[in-house]
Specification:
The longest helix is centred in the last third of the chain and has 26 residues. Helix content is about 40%, strand content about 15%. The protein is of the alpha/beta class.
Length: about 500
């Protein structure tokens, strides 16, 4: 049965089709209807076009694409024959998957570890720091009985963790009190709370291009209208905010919110200097936009010398309370704890806490106690341990990529969880599909763009062990060779997904 809450309009499908680039050898051999069918099939198998989405009528899509109705009708019939489209007279057509086909591929979604078969270059999440996590958990369990006598619901968070997070902000140059902190279920939990509170359907949100894929998708699902602002850079220097473009967007488009990741940005690893932070805040103040700062990777400066001072948090430069900050323990400590937070004015913290009781009530107490332990006395040692892991993996990729993929390139970042790699014109989506058979999960660059941009990039996480990097790069090279010839699956029709 069709999932009727998802309706794809002709303009929306036309935009998606513009990002669904088939390998050139395949596209060049095909009549128009087969190219169109292949593009729609690609969008479905990548997960960019939901299964159960209702597609436009043939005449409407033909008009939007400036194709003949016969071309669209034949493409739809091809998809129905292959099992990717179901239709019913009077009800329209909706997307599907053939019986026995694997679910749509999305390397950004976590899957159970499969160490013996697949190398996961999709999810950028570090393993837990051991033995520190186990030791902190043991101390937290000792504290748990004093909390167990009550109901266990703390809408703003357990006080000891709010104090630890506030203390860490103060240490980083941003004086903070516990009443400015709301503990959430991961950083995404905080972002969802803020989206519901601040952004209405149809509101514009200015975002960096590229930006964090999950937040972009969450904003789309909330009905926000994304306004991308590209970075400015060359092939040798770290990217920087294009402040001229930011001023134009903030004043011209008048977005309600500007969402930025200034500290070891995901996916590029960029670190924005304090002067640029001040200038962006000034532009946002003139336009009335709220600046939503994502600091989930702010502690991950593995490439910054210990003696070098880091920029202060953007909220430390804020004089009119226009900055709201989201942070997380997941990227420095462990994502399995599901601990995030919002730093904001106390009034907004109280409002968010009262509204969250209709969704998650509060964050698990034991997880909060473990995080509070790790953010205390062990933090410098834990941080050094985690940064050492990331640095070692970054060095391993720097050694292996030029050997096996010499035409690929990236600007070495000063920190963060990933490398933002240009694939020398090779489709990231094609690489991701080929990787399903090649034993490596790959995050295509177009997931990090608000409009399907960055097709010729992939994000490589630095969270795989350094010892795994040589094998990972060898598999990447093999997958690249297959994808460059259109042989993503090694079958006669390369757009067909692999059989289960």
């Amino acid at each position: 049965m069709a999932d009727w809450h998802t309706v794809v309009t002709p303009p929306a499908l036309a935009r998606l089709l513009g990002t669904a680039r088939l390998p050139e050898p395949a596209a060049a051999r095909r009549p128009a209807y087969r190219t169109l069918a292949g593009q729609i099939r690609l969008l479905i198998t990548e997960g960019r076009l939901p299964v159960g989405a209702r597609l436009p009528a043939e005449r409407e899509l033909a008009t939007a694409l400036e194709l003949s109705r016969t071309t669209v009708a034949t493409a739809y019939e091809t998809l129905r024959t292959d099992g990717y489209l179901h239709s019913r007279r009077g009800s329209g057509s909706w997307t599907a998957l053939p019986e026995g086909a694997p679910p749509p591929g999305d390397a950004l979604h976590p899957v159970p570890p499969d160490e013996h078969r697949t190398i996961d270059l999709g999810v950028a999440a570090p393993p837990a720091p051991q033995p520190f996590l186990g030791e902190a958990a043991a101390r937290a369990v000792e504290q748990l009985p004093r909390y167990a006598a009550g109901h266990g619901h703390y809408p703003t968070g357990v006080p000891v963790l709010r104090e630890a997070v506030a203390r860490r902000y103060t240490e980083r140059g941003l004086p903070t009190t516990p009443d400015q902190i709301l503990i959430t279920i991961g950083a995404m939990g905080g972002l969802h709370l803020l989206q519901r509170a601040l952004i209405g359907r149809g509101d514009r949100v200015a975002v960096e291009a590229p930006s964090y894929a999950h937040t972009l998708q969450a904003l789309r699902l909330a009905g926000a209208r994304l306004v991308p602002v590209p970075y400015t850079s060359d092939s040798r220097q770290q990217p920087r905010w294009d402040l001229t473009e930011w001023r134009r967007v903030l004043l011209g488009a008048a977005p309600k919110v500007a969402y930025v990741l200034p500290d070891f940005h995901n996916p590029t690893g960029t670190l924005i200097g304090e002067e640029q932070r001040r200038e962006l805040l000034a532009a946002a103040r003139s336009s009335g936009a709220i600046v939503l700062v994502d600091e989930t990777t702010a502690e991950l400066g593995w490439g910054v010398p210990e003696s070098a001072p880091l920029p202060r948090p953007m909220a430390a430069l804020d004089r009119v309370a226009q900055v709201i900050t989201v942070g997380s323990a997941g990227k420095l400590l462990w994502g399995g704890l599901r601990i995030g937070w919002v730093r904001a004015a106390p009034a907004l913290v109280r409002r968010l806490a009262s509204e969250r009781v209709y969704s998650d009530v509060g964050t698990p107490v034991l997880d909060q106690l473990i995080a509070a332990e790790l953010l205390g006395e062990p933090l410098p040692t834990v941080r050094a341990h985690q940064l050492g892991r990331l640095r070692a993996t970054a060095e391993a990729f720097a050694a292996a990529l030029p050997v096996h993929l010499p035409s690929w390139s990236y600007v070495p970042p000063p920190g963060g969880l990933s490398l933002w790699v240009s694939t020398d014109g090779l489709s990231g989506a094609a690489l991701a599909l080929a990787g399903e058979r090649g034993g490596v999960r790959i995050a295509s660059g177009n997931r990090f763009g608000s409009d399907g941009a960055f097709e010729h990039h992939i994000r490589i996480p630095l969270t795989v062990p350094a010892a795994t990097v040589p094998a990972a790069v060898e598999r990447l090279a093999a997958v690249a060779a297959r994808a460059s010839t259109g042989g993503r699956y090694g079958a006669a029709d390369e757009t067909q997904p692999p059989a289960v």
